[in-house]
Design a protein that fits this description.
Yope Regulator, Chain: A, alpha+beta, disordered C terminus, globular, 6-stranded antiparallel sheet, single chain, 3-stranded antiparallel sheet
Length: 141
């Protein structure tokens, strides 16, 4: 596949996932931030290190590698894992990043090598519909 076709594929991948994308060194990278009112040690944060949703794909030697990571609230973990698994996306890691954060922030990694990038993006977007949307309009005091 040509560089230009991969770049166009990356644009569509980013559009489906609702994030901003870049294409460099053969890797399409998409990011967006969740709008969750986290505090670390009582300090409000909008850091991209705390709020990420990250996605990538690369096509090497005819094989595709799709990867993703997202921050989750505790109550979102099991529903999202179930939705990803229904769509044949492997959950590969689940862990925390921070100490003393409120609410509890957990991070989930997932991958697929059996789906095209656009199928992966569509499946992830559909699975993410279970995530709590109630925090989007929150403002810190």
């Amino acid at each position: 596949m040509s560089w230009e076709k991969k770049k166009n594929l990356c644009r569509e991948f980013a559009r489906i996932l609702g994030g901003s994308g870049s294409f460099e060194d053969g890797v399409c990278f998409v990011q967006k931030l969740r709008q969750i009112p986290f505090r670390i040690e009582g300090v409000p944060t909008n850091s991209p290190l705390v709020l990420p949703q990250l996605f990538s794909f690369e096509i090497r030697h005819g094989k595709v590698l799709n990867l993703g990571e997202t921050v989750l609230l505790q109550e979102e973990v099991n529903p999202l894992i179930s939705e990803l698994r229904k769509r044949k996306i492997k959950v590969t890691a689940f862990h925390n990043h921070w100490l003393f954060e409120e609410p509890r922030a957990m991070y989930l990694h997932f991958q697929s090598t059996s789906q095209s990038p656009l199928t992966f993006a569509k499946n992830v977007a559909e699975a993410f519909k279970v995530l709590d949307r109630s925090h989007h309009d929150f403002e810190y005091e």
